[in-house]
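Q: Mind making up any chain with structure tokens?
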Amino acid sequence: MCHALVTLLLSGDVRYIHLYSDQSGLTYSAYAGHWKSIPISLAGYFGSALFALLLFFLHSRRREREGLVAIATIAVLGLALFVRNGFGAAWCAGFAVLTILIVVLSRPGLIKGYYLLIAFICLVESVISALVILSMSFYNPAAAGDATNLDTATYIPALFWGLLFAVFSLVCARSSIKLFYKRGFD
């Protein structure tokens, strides 16, 4: 969704998003101007790390309900506007329905537990996916996804971009954990 958002902000056209069962995805977009591929390619890994940080910030402020509404809204918007494959559509719909159901049930322990589950999954995925891209940019730079796109656009090696994604995700993860412990376990 971050790739799609930046594409739209740069007056591009998002054709579709496909989500896959192996936790990968593809955003296919069209835009004029070679330079636009840089912020669009950066948006995915930076966006996921920042989103995880946002979730922990909301938790530190005891705003889990608002966070769940935002998460469900993103899933519904993704489904309505961009997600075009069967698995992705089923995942977005099921996730949105479950999240809305938990908000409607309004059980504080359930809301907090579900919210933290999502927050930690987002955090772990943001770090693992960045480390996978770092590894791919080292062993097979031509197949390193966004790092490869950035290499092509900037002539800076994919390894640099993979390292940047990994460091950024780890910094956001550290900040997220600090926010989690700042609130405590209440």
Remarks:
- The helical segments are 2-9, 37-60, 64-81, 86-105, 108-139, 146-154, 158-183.
- The chain has one domain: 2-27+35-183.
- The two ends are 32 Å apart (CA to CA).
- The first strand starts at residue 13 and ends at 19.
